[in-house]
Amino acid sequence: MSDFEYANAPESKAIANISPSYGLFIGGKFVDPKKGKSFNTINPATEELLSKVGYGDKSDIDAAVRSARAAYTKIWSKMPAKERGKYLYRIARIMQERAREFAVVETLDNGKPIRESRDTDIPLAAAHFFYHAGWADKLEYAGFGNKPKPLGVVGQIIPWNFPLLMLAWKIAPALAAGNTVVLKPAETTPLTALLFAQVCQQAGLPDGVVNIVTGDGITGAALVNHPDVNKVAFTGSTEVGKAIARSISATKKTATLELGGKAANLVFEDAAIDEAVEGIINGIFFNQGHVCCAGSRLIIQENVADEVLEKLKKRMSLIRVGDPMDKNTDLGAINSKEQLNKIEEISKTGDAEGANRWSPDVKLPTKGFWYPPTIFTGVTQSHRIAREEIFGPVLSVLTFRTPAEAIEKANNTMYGLSAGIWSDKGAKVLWAAKQLKAGVIWSNTFNKFDPASPFGGYKESGWGREGGRHGLAGYLTSDLKVNK
Amino acid sequence: MSSLDINKTYKLFIGGAFPRSESGRVYEVKGTNKKFLANPALASRKDLRDAVVAAKSAQSGWANATAFNRGQILYRIAEIMQGRSEQFVEEICALEGVTTKAAKLQVAEAIDTWVWYSGWCDKLSSISGSQNQVSGPFYNFTTPEALGVIALFAEGKPSLLGAVRTLAPVLAAGNSAILIASESYPLPAITLGEVIATSDVPGGVVNILTGKTSELLPWIGSHMEIDGVDVAGLNKKQEDEIKLVGADNLKRISRFAPANHPERILSFMEHKTIWHPIGI
Fold first, then answer.
1. How many inter-chain contacts (A to B, CB under 8 Å) are there?
2. Whose C-alpha in A284, A426, A442, B198 is 20 to 30 A from the C-alpha of A332?
3. pLDDT digits (tens, 9 = 90+) for A162-182
């Protein structure tokens, strides 16, 4: 490879213009937290301080919920739906205008390659607002009865893997349906949400319709448990999702939960192998594997396993790991020290339980948090690396002989978020798609997302869908379901 | 000289058979006139677990039957119920103390409910599925699928209609069901089991337990192979309790207004979205 090394192609940090400190965004203004506490957010690729952001506690959450309630009662629920939609269109357009700035801030705060934040996260986030803007004045045609109504104040908690995109998945449908929101960004990636708060100001969005309170799990719990929140929308771990389900069990609150996954990526003997290898790479190494729907269990038909693995290893050797701000980088930094520790801990059980580890020879930067692209072969279904979500660039490889065995292995998990199928036979693809217990099936592709496409899991991967017509349902009342 | 009545032994309905409770327990049910009516089984935790095993193993076959086939079987239930109308009317009158006219109306409505849901079986993806216009060369569609094993707490009154109203939509979706008959008004639910047993419904798709709601509730809530619950017959405290324990496997738990609506079917379905590239 030495003959064809890529030259550095760094994106400039200058456009980011990150403020040294941020307050909480409540009632349309940045305000200091009541207790005056703040916490640092760093660049995980360099460990450099990016900014200090406000730490919201129970009293700040209360102020934010009050502001959201006032905006709901006095303004947002009374505004003609057409006007509500126009605000969302404005937001989408401003996000597009400031797309490069958003991409740079996202990459600095998250560690993901600039190519991904530039080409995936930010354009999809803007598209999500544009898509839902159009729904705002068409809800009576969405199939939820003649007069679908908003729920009120929605508390939303998002993860650190796609910070702005998850914000868009949450806020866009909530506002389109006529709700107001209090959103808590992830502790390690608050910056694009605070930038989004500025977009709301530029769009002239009425004060209090969107409130953003940065903080940690305690802040999130205060939001879930606030008595004046009507609905909780959460993306994150299954463990926390269950805790939320318990804590709202005796209330009138409803919830949408997008939780963990351990997706099977099935490669049948008749697959186009080169395409499948690209799909496997995209499935597990996209966004450092920090993807709830990552194709983290590769299940290959035995007679093509050697060929697939040989090509996969060769392809993995070409993955460029390093500076996320370099436009050529494929695999960026692990989002936090804590997550790196978790990846290391679970991966070590792969070694201990008898699986065979392989990584290409990559030079990892000395500063920051890094993990090489890794595969484990010889994995059995009882191994922890085949059962638990690693949320990193680590792939577990299993094999199968018959299609029935493939399905049984694929479905042998408490999760049911996504799955992949690689085969050139149409009837077999559709057969497998029908058998797989997962909410999103990618056949001969992987990790595709679109505002018009519902996303969400079976079993313990969550409740409800986000995106498309089905995603709207979570933000509207049905005329038939009774809420105690 | 009139001959003595042959009274029916009211048993459980599990996996297509009518066993007594493995616990050997029964409880007394009296009519509104305080007269003894029957000793239905007091189902135990073990009976529940047996019912879940039966429901789980029957579910994929039921879900994979064609929707047309499922629709015909639900219609068949209506046909068989029609022939048994008098028995249901007697049971309802004795249990609920209502007039014959009211009981007849209830039976007729229960039969109509089967017919109505029968017609839904092959229309669900038309109203709840979609082809999604994604920005790229992909064919992308969403379709509803059965959730799995659903536990149903039937309303007490109306006793027959309450049971049918919870059961029919769940079956239309392709789920299998464990119907917990109302503790105070259980008899029509068991007779409904006898109808179902003779209506071409595969064994295990419907299971019916009688007994103490408060005893069965925690085991239903914590059973990891039960995927959803209709809490029609539970009070608020019981509903809170089952929601709390049901979080262990994120059970889909719903309460509906006492009416027929496709939402009752769709709430116990999952939506699957499938992507495939378009190209040569």
1. 115
2. A442
3. 999 999 999 999 999 999 999
